[in-house]
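Before relying on records like the one below, remember that each one covers exactly one chain. Contacts with other chains, cofactors or solvent are not represented anywhere in the record.
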Amino acid sequence: AHSPNSASRPWSTRYLVGLMIATPALLWPLWNGLATTIKAGFPVLTRARLVTIARWAVLALLLGLFVGETLFTTNDMPAIQKDSTQANTVTQKLVQMGAVHIYSGYWQCDRFIFLTQEKIICAVLEENLSRGLTRYRPYYDSVHADTHASYVFPQGSNFEKNFERKMAESGLQFQKIVVAGYVVFRPLR
């Protein structure tokens, strides 16, 4: 649940939980009954060979995908661990600072909320600092109503650059705190 893997590669891992249930049903025909789905027009020997080749081809493909994804994930482990450590560190710092309401990016918001068990409520912003997709509307309303909400962005991101530009144009004053690869902007009270 704390892994950033689904956030860093959502196109490959986001909905794979359903495959745990579906995979046995998809693989069963490879082991049992596939021969009955081939038309009886094939000679028996050719039909048996086709079934065997199909079974081995699909199994080899699945094994190759499994090995490939395992190697890819293993190579990503240092980056995943670093990202997890950074997120935990900045989350602890936000709690220590007494931050209750924050704005951040889509992938960061749910993580902050989850890691703090809703001690921190987050509203999503797009990179241009417009309102983003906060999946639970009361979160956005709560953060938006707080005039002292902080802004938390990955360091060096477009979020940070756009926020600093907007801050300079508006004349509003924020304290900038760098913590573990994130930038926290706290409004000066």
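The radius of gyration is 25 Å.
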